[in-house]
Amino acid sequence: MDIGGLLTAVQTLNGDDAFRPRLNHEQWRVLSQYLSRHEMRAGELLIRQGDSDRAMYLLEQGSLQVYATGAPPGTRIAILRPGAVVGELSLFVDGTRGANVETMTPCIVWVLRGPRIEELAQRVPALALEVLRAAGAVMAVRMRATMTRQMPMA
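User: That's the sequence. What structure does it adopt?
Assistant: Structure tokens below.
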């Protein structure tokens, strides 16, 4: 599978919560064997709040909006650009999704499902560890930002 577009998107995304695995081109090629590529139309739901699944998504092309059901209309948690990851928490814990993720434009997303990361961990543990480290770093930055927004200002 050609992951050139994904690799470019991940490497060029600037942001505190950017997914930054320390992988060389060959390691990305190996990782691509554990990912599945999906093309989506604008307005499709990628993640449904309350669902249980174990999958992290990497956005190659397009934009996604993250919002919670029950929030005031038009309230977005985030807008994600190419190179972003979403759903990273599900690689670490079993549970339900905390928000909806919808395509705003046509998108290309790559999916890393829980069973596939487990298979990767069996076959290439160092690669799986690096992917999980980078996903954990994204999760930590996002959680810290959420906590900061909820802290009362003195």
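Residues 35 and 112 are 5 Å apart (CA to CA).
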